[in-house]
Amino acid sequence: xxxxxxxxxxxxxxxxxxxxxxxxxxxxxxxxxxxxxxxxxxxxxxxxxxxxxxxxxxxxxxxxxxxxxxxxxxxxxxxxxxxxxxxxxxxx
Length: 92
Fold this sequence. Notes:
2 helices; single chain; about 90 residues; mainly alpha
């Protein structure tokens, strides 16, 4: 009977640990999303201001180049974070 109790207790502790880990990820992701949303309007206003400085038709080209640049930067950051995560997991 004691063995069943110890096994159940250990499983409950593991579940609680995983729950806290998952909850921390959700909260962190939520704050990151809110931070990203707070930057949306200032960045959008800045890009609109820059587009107004271009002659007619040049603004569309700027939108494409900025989208390409942001995509490249995003992929680069994702690759770096993925490598960091793999290194962290392999050292544990």
